[in-house]
Design brief:
The complex is a heterodimer of chains A (111) and B (114). With 111 residues, chain A is mainly β. Chain A is 0% helix and 57% strand. In chain A, the strands form 2 sheets. In chain A, strands 2, 4, 5, 9, 10 and 11 form a 6-stranded mixed β-sheet that branches. Classes of the chains: A mainly beta (111), B mainly beta (114).
Chain lengths: 111, 114
Amino acid sequence: QKEVEQDPGPLSVPEGAIVSLNCTYSNSAFQYFMWYRQYSRKGPELLMYTYSSGNKEDGRFTAQVDKSSKYISLFIRDSQPSDSATYLCAMIRFNNNDMRFGAGTRLTVKP
Amino acid sequence: DSGVTQTPKHLITATGQRVTLRCSPRSGDLSVYWYQQSLDQGLQFLIHYYNGEERAKGNILERFSAQQFPDLHSELNLSSLELGDSALYFCASSVVEGSAGELFFGEGSRLTVL
């Protein structure tokens, strides 16, 4: 079993839809949780960063962490074609340099 | 533009050969990370350097080695290449030692081994 599980999709939604992306993890030592966005032929870029359980909102994006269930989510409201990319969850233990990534979910938002 | 520069962008070589991938981190960043991204494995952590010193190793093969130079640029050396080494290799940098800080990724070096 992988430490971080993420459905690779692909996921296709119409413009304006609410998108839900999820990851589960097995190591309860993970403390920091991130979502990276990767456009085709580009490197990943940080989208959201959370530490504690609960929700964090940034514009159309909401990151949710449930440490008790070892489950993290990223919600995208009013999705746009420009949101079409691969979304990778990432997590790291406290005082550790080994960031673990999910496999990434490929999202397409159709106009 | 993340500020992280990787060269070459594309590289095609044969099995058994050796290649060197180069990374220049963002100005002021002391940490450099190397990742391998393949279709079936996702992003795999290879190795981390901070200010010239190795800090952590991940799933890096013995055929692979890396170093960070005094000017903070880093090189990843891949030797005795196999078909399975074909992948995107990303370098990322961070201002802090621990990667709990944001990682800034380069655009990657795409390696094809024939």
